[in-house]
Design goal:
about 50% helix, binds nicotinamide-adenine-dinucleotide, about 425 residues, about 15% strand, 7-stranded parallel sheet, Rossmann fold, single chain
Length: about 425
């Protein structure tokens, strides 16, 4: 190739490259313009087609922002709530099946029931509480509300209940005289119809059932201390009979279902029990004396104060109930503390522990008030290896502390 031919070839390549660059530049520019144009036309047509003015658009976006803020606020509150509830949930054991049982506790929001639920939950079981809140309180159980093993059902056991469980602790019944005398017919229904419903449920699903009976089945006893084979001395038409006879029919029903329908029953005859979460106005001797002492009112003794009682601390009772449920023993078992005190001794002890300025006064005795009450617990010792451990003074101190807190909560509210 000549020298002039070479220059010509270089110039052609240069011009071709320049043209190519220009074409690419215009193409990109054109595409950018096109896209912008389409977007603005789209926005315009959207505004036109939906008749949304600029003002309306602005208002909508402001409302949108308010909703987003509210949502964020709710999220924050949920996080705070989750934190505050889970913080108070007590630790529970991990149990695997078949050790882990599904357990129903009727009356589980009451004094005894809520303590029993605490231990069953801590031991790793799945617990369902059924309660109509006649005397029980949700606050006795609120520390379990967010636990996956816990369920609370608002239900009156006079009506049938359909549920699948392995064990039933049947505790639902008013227990203090003012409560069970408030509606005697309902007390009888709860102990008769309610117990039939629980035994019928146990029969259908093959569950074991423990019925909470009472030392009141011995009435005003003529045998002392009271063994389980003593049949009792109950006035069937007196003011306490709705409860005493209600519990006697509950026991009769239990053994009828055991014999006729093969239901596995356990019957606990519970003697006076005390401890935190007792209803401070339940009219029983422990709560009456503690409240009167804390308020520096006179401590009232019905009768001459020589009648006797024995008092078990709640932890001991719960231990006995669980041992009985899981034992092979199916006849009634007394659960109570055999240490016996006259009511006057008991009033003096509480007065001294509280340390107020109350005086002790005596008023007329109460109709059908049992004169002597003390359990013979040889059966519980032999069959369950159970014996109460908490000394009266220690238990009373804890109970008085609880009553003090309840009173200051009431004053604050
Ligand atoms: N605490 C004692 O000293 C003592 C002594 C002897 C027997 N007992 C028996 O132990 C059980 C528990 O007594 P407590 O001291 O915890 O009494 P409580 O009044 O504190 O508890 C009873 C619970 O049963 C619930 N209940 C009552 N009727 C119901 C119904 N129809 N349906 C559903 N729930 C109902 C109440 O709301 C309450 O939560 C009772 O059966 C009682 O007879 C207790």
């Amino acid at each position: 190739m000549t020298r002039s031919g070479g220059r010509f070839f270089t110039a052609v390549i240069f011009i071709t490259l320049m043209c190519l660059i220009l074409v690419i530049f215009f193409y990109v520019k054109l595409d950018f313009y096109h896209q912008n144009h389409v977007l603005s036309v789209g926005k315009e047509s959207l505004q036109k087609s939906s008749f949304v003015s600029d003002d309306q658009m602005e208002k909508l976006s402001r409302e949108n922002q308010i909703l987003i803020d509210q949502l964020k606020d709710l999220e924050l509150r949920i996080k705070i709530l989750e934190g505050s509830t889970s913080k108070n949930v007590p630790n529970t054991r991990r149990l695997s099946s078949p050790e882990r049982k599904r357990i129903l506790v009727t009356g589980g929001a009451g004094f005894v029931g809520s303590h029993l639920v605490d231990i069953l939950m801590k031991n790793g079981h799945e617990v369902t509480v059924v309660d109509n809140f006649f005397t029980g309180r949700k606050s006795n159980l609120h520390h379990w509300f967010s636990h996956k093993n816990f369920e609370l059902i608002h239900h009156d056991i006079v009506n049938p209940l359909y549920i699948e469980v392995d064990q039933i602790y049947h505790l639902a019944s008013p227990a203090s005289p003012p409560h069970y005398m408030f509606n005697p017919v309902k007390t009888i229904k709860t102990n008769a119809l309610g117990t039939i419903n629980m035994l019928g449920l146990a029969k259908r699903i093959g569950a074991r059932v423990l019925v909470a009976s009472t030392s009141e089945v011995y009435g005003d006893p003529q045998v002392h201390p009271q063994p389980e084979d003593y049949w009792g001395n109950v006035n069937p038409i007196g003011p306490r009979s709705c409860y005493d006879e209600g519990k006697r029919i509950a026991e009769a029903l239990s053994y009828a279902y055991a014999k006729q329908e093969n239901v596995a029953v356990r019957v606990a005859r519970i003697f006076n029990t005390y401890g935190p979460r007792m209803n401070i106005n339940d009219g029983r001797v422990v709560s009456n004396f503690i409240m009167q002492s804390l308020l520096n009112h006179s401590i009232t003794i019905y009768g001459d104060g020589t009648q006797t009682r024995s008092f078990a601390y709640i932890d001991d009772l719960v231990d006995g109930l669980i041992k009985l449920m899981n034992s092979n023993y199916s006849l009634p078992v007394n659960l109570g503390n055999p240490e016996e005190y006259t009511i006057l001794e008991f009033a003096t002890l509480i007065k001294n522990l509280v340390g107020g300025s109350s005086s002790i006064v005596f008023t007329d005795g109460v109709e059908d008030d049992p004169q002597r009450r003390r359990p013979d617990i040889s059966r519980a010792r032999r069959e369950l290896n159970w014996t109460p451990k908490v000394p009266l003074k220690i238990g009373l101190k804890k109970t008085i502390e609880y009553f003090r807190k309840e009173m200051s909560n009431l004053n604050e509210n």
